[in-house]
Structures are given as structure tokens and as C-alpha cells.
Design a protein that fits this description.
Blueprint: H1 2-25, H2 29-35, E1 37-42, H3 46-59, E2 64-69, H4 72-84, E3 92-94, H5 97-105, E4 109-110, E5 132-140, E6 142-144, E7 169-172, H6 178-186, H7 188-199, E8 204-206, H8 209-217, E9 223-225, E10 227-228, H9 229-237, E11 242-244, E12 251-261, H10 267-278, H11 280-288, E13 309-311, H12 314-317, H13 320-331
Parallel strand pairs: 1-2, 1-3, 7-8, 7-9, 12-13
Antiparallel strand pairs: 3-12, 4-12, 5-10, 5-12, 6-11
Helix pairs in contact: 1-3, 1-11, 2-10, 4-5, 6-7, 8-9
Length: about 325
């Protein structure tokens, strides 16, 4: 794809310097070469895994990166099942907070307070050193640029309650943690009231942020909510007339942290990989892939104001069943 080719070209431009710098700077590289490989369990998209693997292996020759990619729920259950069977196969997990929090509770993660973490603000890392946010996915309100005039764009989330939007909004069932964001922003009582009123706008529910952004771009709906900004950007790149609102209220993001497994079979390579993912060069690659880097000295390319970004805590993300039921009770199933 165009996105993949761009990411590879952009990463190769600085890989030559990265190889020598990374090899010289990492205290784990020599022992990681003896271990020869590192195994990553992740939710990172398959198209993103390719440039990520290429960059890591060129930065650290002799250390092979093996990747198991699945949904967060599947990654979590695979690790828990393997652990119960006494098979500790994963070295590193890079997934949404909903997977990281239960793993920490099960004592399956180990602290790794890399010096690279100093470049991350407190909201992008676990205070005890168990995880560091490689990238947050940011909730957004996508709109069709040909159907919605600038003066009609919502400035606040409450503007979605305007009667003119009744029956004309879309809702992505897969991004149900938006509800946690609204409860955080408004408080439990006012947040629940806002969500009930939003449901009364009769939004059309679909499964998938990319699908919803595509529908908005195609003009089937003028606007939607519960859609990740990177989904919108990906559809926008194809030439579709879609963008997302730079709202005055705080933006909310779901963290995708990296952590070292407590029983990692390749412990040095595991730390090497996490350090790479949160290094300045690794985070620049994350930005090139169209995601918001967690690191403060690397700028996102998708126009997210990180100063306004609030991160939903992993322990809140772990309440998946609670928020999924809340969504279905309020908005119904996807059609």
C-alpha cells in the first residue's frame, strides 16, 4: 500500500545512522545477539509490523524479531493460557491497556525503567515502570468536508446533541471506551446523562472505525463519533473528503504500551526491543506510520495537540465487558 511504502522509505532514510547509534548505545545488544531472537505479541496492524520489524532488525543485526499479531483480547487470552500451561513464549507485549492491566495483575510483567522513559510525560507511562505507551489511539469526530460547513462543526462534545444531527450521526461500536472518556470528562452522573441524550440522537451503529470513516467520506453520513483519528487519516489519505474535528474539549486516547514479560525467554532481547520502541528513532517510525507517538520530543504527523490529550488508564480500559454492555444498552448493536 501507499502508506506502507511511505513508511518504509521514511524509515530507511535514517536507518543507516540508527544501526551504528543503536548498537553503540544499548547495554542489552551484546547479550541480545547471544539470545538471537525476540518474540513480540502485539495488536499492531500487520502493515505496520513490516516496517517496524525491518527497522529493528537493521538497527540490531543478529537479533531476529518474531511477531504474533492478534486482537487485544486474543493476545491477552493466549498469554494467560500459555502461562497456565507453564509455557512462557512471549518476550514483549505491545497492546492496548485493556490487555496490559490484567497481565500486570497476574504478575506476568516485570518492571523496566529504561532511561528512554525520561522523554515521556507521566500520563504516557506507568509510574512503577511496568509499561510505557508506544502510541495512543485518539478518539475523534469525523465529518464529510463537502457536507458539513466549518461553521457547523461541533466545538464541544455537547454540540453533538444539536437537533440538526438527529438521525445523521454514525457511531463506531468498536471504540466503546469513548464512554469512559465522557464519564471522566463530565463525571459519572453528568456523563451518563450526556450519553443517554447522545443515544437519543439515533446514531447509525457500525463495527469498525475504518468502515465508519469510509461511510462518512462517501457521504452516507455527514458525521460520526467513537472513531479513532488514525482511521480517519488513513481514509483521508486515499483522497476521500473526510477529516476530523479539532474540538475545544479535551481529546482522549487509549494507550498501547509496551512491556517486558516477567518470564521472557529472551530477557535481554526483550529489553532491547522495548527500548527501541520507545527510543526517539523508534517513535519517529511510529509517527511515520500515522500514529501519535507517546514520546514528548517526537511530533505526531496527524495534527493531534498532545497538550490537550488525556489518556484513559489501562485499569479503566480493562473494564471491557462493562463498557461494551453500556454501549449496547444505549446505542444498540451494529446494523
Amino acid at each position: 500500500t501507499v502508506k506502507f511504502c511511505f513508511a518504509v522509505v521514511a524509515s530507511l532514510a535514517w536507518l543507516a545512522g540508527l544501526v551504528s547509534q543503536g548498537s553503540a548505545q544499548s547495554a542489552f545488544y551484546a547479550k541480545a545477539k547471544e539470545e538471537a531472537k525476540v518474540i513480540l505479541y502485539t495488536t499492531l496492524a500487520a502493515s505496520d509490523n513490516k516496517p517496524f520489524r525491518a527497522a529493528f532488525e537493521q538497527a540490531y543485526p543478529g537479533v531476529q524479531l518474531e511477531i504474533y499479531r492478534a486482537s487485544g483480547t486474543t493476545v491477552l487470552q493466549k498469554i494467560l493460557t500459555e502461562s497456565r500451561a507453564g509455557a512462557h513464549l512471549a518476550d514483549v507485549v505491545l497492546a492496548e491497556g485493556a490487555a496490559l492491566s490484567p497481565l500486570r495483575d497476574a504478575n506476568l510483567l516485570v518492571k523496566f525503567d529504561s532511561p528512554e522513559r525520561k522523554a515521556f510525560e507521566a500520563r504516557f507511562k506507568d509510574k512503577d515502570g511496568f509499561w510505557t505507551d508506544v502510541y495512543p489511539t485518539v478518539h475523534s469526530i469525523p465529518y464529510n468536508t463537502k457536507l458539513v460547513a466549518q461553521q457547523d462543526l461541533p466545538k464541544r462534545y455537547t454540540d453533538l446533541l444539536d437537533p440538526k444531527w438527529k438521525g445523521k450521526l454514525g457511531a463506531n461500536r468498536n471504540a466503546f471506551m469513548f464512554q469512559a472518556a465522557m464519564l471522566n470528562l463530565y463525571g459519572q452522573e453528568k456523563g451518563e446523562d450526556f450519553l443517554r441524550k447522545l443515544a437519543q440522537q439515533n446514531p447509525q451503529v457500525r463495527d469498525g472505525g475504518t468502515l465508519m470513516a469510509t461511510l462518512v467520506g462517501a457521504g452516507e453520513l455527514p458525521m460520526a463519533f467513537f472513531v479513532y483519528a488514525n482511521n480517519v487519516e488513513n481514509v483521508k489519505e486515499s483522497g476521500s473528503p473526510v477529516d476530523w474535528v479539532r474540538i475545544e474539549d479535551p481529546l482522549y486516547g487509549e494507550p498501547h504500551p509496551a512491556a517486558v514479560m516477567a518470564r521472557a525467554p529472551h530477557p535481554n532481547a526483550a529489553r532491547l526491543l522495548v527500548e527501541f520502541a520507545i527510543s526517539k528513532d523508534g517513535q519517529q517510525l511510529i509517527s511515520n506510520l500515522g500514529k501519535v507517538p507517546g514520546r514528548g520530543d517526537v511530533q505526531p504527523k496527524i495534527g493531534v495537540d498532545r497538550a490537550k490529550l488525556r489518556i484513559i488508564p489501562p485499569e479503566d480500559e480493562a473494564k471491557t465487558a462493562y463498557y461494551q454492555k453500556m454501549f449496547d444498552d444505549l446505542f444498540g448493536k451494529a446494523r
